[in-house]
Amino acid sequence: ETGVTQSPTHLIKTRGQQVTLRCSSQSGHNTVSWYQQALGQGPQFIFQYYREEENGRGNFPPRFSGLQFPNYSSELNVNALELDDSALYLCASSSPGTEIKAFFGQGTRLTVV
Amino acid sequence: RKEVEQDPGPFNVPEGATVAFNCTYSNSASQSFFWYRQDCRKEPKLLMSVYSSGNEDGRFTAQLNRASQYISLLIRDSKLSDSATYLCVVGPGSYIPTFGRGTSLIVHP
Question: I want to staple A63 with a disulfide (CB 3.0 to 4.6 A). Which of A38, A79, B38, B69 is the partner?
C-alpha cells in the first residue's frame, strides 16, 4: 500500500457534465500530480500542485482544473466532459525534487457516455 | 516523433527466459530515467532507477545509453509474476516526467 488514496474508484458521467475526483496524498508528501491514462497508453501528465499552487501543467485544456488543500489532499475537476475524457485518472504524491519517484493511488476509472 | 517510445509488445516468453526491453527518448537534455511496472487495471509502481553506470536489482538490470538516447531493462530467469506492463519514464530533471506507452510482458509456464 502506497498510502495514496483516490475516490471514487469508478464513475460514469454523461457528456457535458462536470466531475470532481479526489486524492489524499501519502503522509509527508506535499506535492501532488495528476495523470490521465487512456487504454493502452502511458500516463499523461495533467498538472502538479505544490503548497496549494499549480506548479506545472501538461498539454490539457483549461476545463481541466485542480486544487490542493492545506493538508496536501487534492481535487481534479473536469468541466464539459467529452467522450475522449474516458480514462483512468491517477494521482501521485511525492516530495519536492523527487516527483519522478512518485507513489500512485489506485486511480479513478471515469467513463463518459 | 514521440518524446518517449516503447514497443508495446506483447513479449511472450516462457518461464526462466531472459527478456529485454528498450525505450528511446528524443530530448537529449533528459536527466532522470526510471522503469515502472503496471499490473492489469492497477496503478504504476516504481521498479527501479536507471543510472549511466547501469544498475542491478536481483534479476533486473537497467542501463542507460546517452549517446543513442535509449534505456533498457533486462529481466533474467523470468517468473510468471513478472507478467505486467513495463513503463519507462524520462524527465528533464525530476520534474514533469514523460511516460512511454509501456511494453507488455507475458510469461507463460
Answer: A79
